[in-house]
Amino acid sequence: SSNVYECMKNETEVKNKLLPYTWIVVRIDGRHFHQFSDMHDFDKPNDSKALGLMNACVVALLEKFKDVIFAYGVSDEYSFVFSKTSQFQQRQGSNIVSMIVSFFSSLYVLNWDEFFPHKELRSTPSFDGRAICYPSTKILRDYLAWRQVDCHINNQYNTCFWMLVKSGKTKREAQSILKGTQTPDKNDLLYKQFGIDYNTLPAMFRKGSFIFRDKVEEIVQHRENGCGHIQKVQMKVIIEHCDIIGESFWKENPHLITCDN
Ligand code: DGT
Ligand code: MG
Ligand code: MG
Ligand code: MG
Asked: What family is this protein classified in (predicted)?
């Protein structure tokens, strides 16, 4: 009967509903990207074009889904942050996650040629996704810091590892050289053996990418007479590779995390 139907529907919706008044983070991650990166011969450890493709997809996603306030990503993963008060998809977790991963996967395929005009897409990229709720701004900031620390640790390790391998060490040898080393040891190794100052490597590799909307002032020519100009203030999606662990970025961009978000 229709009553049974209503019960089933309500129960499913209640179970799926993300806790009200909490930040929603949807994290996606490329499936089997170890294989995918090898198959497409991505530069190791970082491929600027592959990262650029990820970022372009995120920009398009922010343009489509206004409920996503900002996103942070590295490697084959991205975290999308929705406001505490967002009513996107009535906060149904499975709806939100499935929309984000399917849209993102399509964008990845759609934008492939722009970043790899001479490389054929040889398999079907797909992404897993999960939604997590964070009840306070502090915990959301901790989450983002955790992802950026992870970016740093992995990137530093991978940079050393691939420099050693490219210089003739086997993967096993490189692994054992790096075993138990700390951050200063790795910086030393890069500098002494390869003349690389880790801090001068591209910020996108070291810090990941933070993508958000910001006010951009544009000076446009006056239409009628061609002279004079009008100033337009627009919201634009922009990409930065900045430190999101400390206070300064958040102080400079107070609109990203506010009490009434
Ligand atoms: P998963 O997520 O469990 O399906 O497995 P994977 O293989 O996607 O592993 P994950 O997500 O832990 O690690 C990301 C992999 O993607 C890692 O093996 C390195 C690769 N990858 C990501 N970005 C780049 C890049 O820019 N260049 C290269 N060469 N590889 C990359
Ligand atoms: Mg994974
Ligand atoms: Mg992956
Ligand atoms: Mg990953």
From this structure: Belongs to the tRNA(His) guanylyltransferase family.
